Automatic annotation (TrEMBL):
<feature type="transmembrane region" description="Helical">
    <location>
        <begin position="306"/>
        <end position="323"/>
    </location>
</feature>
<feature type="transmembrane region" description="Helical">
    <location>
        <begin position="47"/>
        <end position="72"/>
    </location>
</feature>
<dbReference type="Pfam" id="PF03916">
    <property type="entry name" value="NrfD"/>
</dbReference>
<comment type="similarity">
    <text>Belongs to the NrfD family.</text>
</comment>
<feature type="transmembrane region" description="Helical">
    <location>
        <begin position="7"/>
        <end position="27"/>
    </location>
</feature>
<feature type="transmembrane region" description="Helical">
    <location>
        <begin position="335"/>
        <end position="358"/>
    </location>
</feature>
<feature type="transmembrane region" description="Helical">
    <location>
        <begin position="121"/>
        <end position="142"/>
    </location>
</feature>
<keyword id="KW-0812">Transmembrane</keyword>
<feature type="transmembrane region" description="Helical">
    <location>
        <begin position="84"/>
        <end position="101"/>
    </location>
</feature>
<dbReference type="InterPro" id="IPR005614">
    <property type="entry name" value="NrfD-like"/>
</dbReference>
<feature type="transmembrane region" description="Helical">
    <location>
        <begin position="378"/>
        <end position="398"/>
    </location>
</feature>
<feature type="transmembrane region" description="Helical">
    <location>
        <begin position="186"/>
        <end position="208"/>
    </location>
</feature>
<dbReference type="GO" id="GO:0005886">
    <property type="term" value="C:plasma membrane"/>
</dbReference>
<feature type="transmembrane region" description="Helical">
    <location>
        <begin position="220"/>
        <end position="243"/>
    </location>
</feature>
<keyword id="KW-1003">Cell membrane</keyword>
<feature type="transmembrane region" description="Helical">
    <location>
        <begin position="263"/>
        <end position="286"/>
    </location>
</feature>
<keyword id="KW-1133">Transmembrane helix</keyword>
C-alpha cells in the first residue's frame, strides 16, 4: 500500500472518530437541552458562540481575499482563489452548525426567516447570511465552470458529477470564459458590501448594540470584526495552500507565500491598532463594568488566553517570524506563523464572548465564570472535523485547483 493511501485512510479515520464523538455529544445536547452545558442565564453565550463568530470571520476574510483575485485582478494570488471561496462556504456551514446547537429551541431555527422583525439585528443578519452563501456558491461555480466542462469528458464519479454540474454545457470558447469572468466580477463586487457590512460587520453589530455590556457597546466593534476576519482568513488560506501543496507533492509558490505573509502582517498591525484603541477608549471612560471586564481579561482566570494565546502565540511569535531575516524566507516558518495567527484569533473570539459576560451587570448578581463542559468540547471538535471532512471530499470531487496547478502536480 502506498504511503499516500495509508495517510489518506488515517486522515479519514481520525475525522470519522472525531465526528462520531461529536455526534454523540450533539445527541446528548438534543436530549438534555442546554442543561448539559455550563451556560446559564448569567452567561448565556460560551464556546459555541465563540466558534460561531470565529468561523464567520474565517469565511468573510477568505471571501474578501478572493475578491482581490476575481474583482481587483491581483492574479499573483490566483492559485488560492477557488480555495478561498470553498473555505468561505464551508466556514459558514460550520458557523451555522455552532449557532444551531446554541439555540435553546433548535427546532425553531427557521423562525428567524419566517418571522421578520424589522428592528432586529439578528433578523437582518440571518438574511444577509442566506444571500452571502448563495453568492459564494455561485461565484465558486463560475470560477471552476470551464474546468468542470473539461472534467466532464473523463470517466469515473468525478466526471459524472462534473457532467451533472455543467448541465450539458460544452462551451469552452473564449467568449464563454470571458462571460464567466465577467459574472465573477459582478458577484464578487456585490459580495464585498454584503461580507463587510452584512456578514462580519453585522456579526460584530450583534455585540456592539448590547447596551448592557459596555465592553461590546462600541462603534469600533464591527470594524474590528472585519479586520480580524481579514487576518484569520489570510492566515488560514496561506496555511492550507502550503500544507496541501506539500501533501500533494507540488512545488510551493514561495513568492506568493511571502506576498501573503506581507498582507497578513499589514492586517495584523491594523487589527492590533484597533484593539489597542478599543481597550484604551474603554478604560479611559473609567466606567466600572468596562474596567472590571478589562481587568478580567488581563488578570482573571482566563488571562492566559489573552496573554499567551491571543498576544504571544497569535501576534508576537508570528511578527517575529515575519521580520526575522532568515525565518521570513522560510516557507515552513511562515506557515507556522500563519497557523499561530489562526489560533490567536480563536483566542480573540473567546476573549470577546466570555469575559464580558463574567462581570455582573448589577451589584449583587453572581459573577458568570464559565468553563465549557465535555459535551461542548466534543461537539465542537466533531463540527470542526465535519468541516475538514467536507473540505477533503470537496477538493477531491471538484476542480478546486486551476489547470496549471494540476499540471504542476503531475
Amino acid at each position: 500500500m502506498k504511503s499516500s493511501t495509508r495517510l489518506t485512510k488515517a486522515w479519514y479515520g481520525v475525522l470519522v472518530i472525531l465526528m462520531a464523538l461529536g455526534g454523540w455529544a450533539i445527541i446528548e445536547r438534543i436530549r438534555g437541552g442546554l442543561a448539559v452545558t455550563n451556560l446559564t442565564s448569567t452567561t448565556p453565550w460560551g464556546a459555541w458562540v465563540a466558534f460561531y463568530i470565529f468561523f464567520v470571520g474565517l469565511s468573510a476574510g477568505s471571501f474578501l481575499l478572493s475578491t482581490m483575485i476575481f474583482v481587483f485582478k491581483m492574479e499573483q494570488y490566483e492559485k488560492i482563489g477557488r480555495d478561498a471561496l470553498l473555505v468561505a462556504i464551508l466556514s459558514m456551514v460550520l458557523a451555522m452548525c455552532f449557532i444551531l446547537i446554541d439555540l435553546g429551541r433548535m427546532e425553531r431555527f427557521w423562525h428567524a426567516l419566517r418571522y421578520w422583525n424589522f428592528t432586529s439585528i439578528l433578523a437582518w443578519e440571518v438574511r444577509f447570511y442566506v444571500v452571502y452563501i448563495g453568492l459564494l456558491m455561485a461565484e465558486l461555480y463560475f470560477s471552476m465552470r470551464q474546468d468542470l466542462i473539461r472534467a466532464a469528458k473523463g470517466s469515473g464519479w468525478q466526471a459524472a458529477l462534473a457532467r451533472f454540474l455543467t448541465f450539458g454545457s460544452t462551451d469552452l470558447t473564449a467568449a464563454s470564459k470571458q462571460r464567466d469572468h465577467r459574472l465573477l466580477k459582478i458577484l464578487g463586487s456585490i459580495g464585498i458590501p454584503v461580507a463587510i457590512f452584512g456578514v462580519h460587520g453585522g456579526t460584530g453589530t450583534l455585540f456592539a448594540v448590547a447596551k448592557a455590556r459596555p465592553f461590546w457597546n462600541s462603534g469600533l466593534f464591527p470594524v474590528i470584526f472585519v479586520v480580524s476576519a481579514l487576518v484569520s482568513g489570510t492566515a488560514l488560506l496561506l496555511a492550507i495552500y502550503v500544507i496541501r501543496s506539500k501533501v500533494m507533492g507540488r512545488e510551493v509558490d514561495k513568492e506568493m507565500v511571502k506576498s501573503l505573509a506581507g498582507l497578513l502582517t499589514l492586517f495584523l498591525f491594523i487589527d492590533l491598532g484597533l484593539e489597542f484603541y478599543e481597550f484604551f477608549v474603554g478604560a479611559y471612560g473609567l466606567q466600572y463594568t468596562e474596567l472590571a471586564t478589562i481587568e478580567t481579561i488581563f488578570r482573571g482566570p482566563f488571562s492566559w488566553s489573552f496573554w499567551w494565546v491571543q498576544l504571544f502565540l497569535g501576534v508576537v511569535v508570528p511578527l517575529f517570524i515575519f521580520f526575522h531575516p532568515r525565518l521570513k524566507e522560510s516557507v515552513n516558518a511562515i506557515t507556522l506563523a500563519a497557523i499561530l495567527v489562526v489560533i490567536g484569533i480563536l483566542g480573540v473570539r473567546f476573549n470577546i464572548v466570555v469575559p464580558a459576560l463574567i462581570v455582573p451587570v448589577l451589584p449583587g448578581l453572581p459573577w458568570g465564570y464559565y468553563y465549557p463542559t465535555l459535551v461542548e468540547w466534543l461537539s465542537s471538535l466533531g463540527i470542526v472535523a465535519f468541516g475538514l471532512f467536507l473540505y477533503t471530499v470537496a477538493i477531491k470531487a471538484l476542480p478546486i485547483d486551476t489547470v496549471e496547478e494540476l499540471r504542476e502536480g503531475k
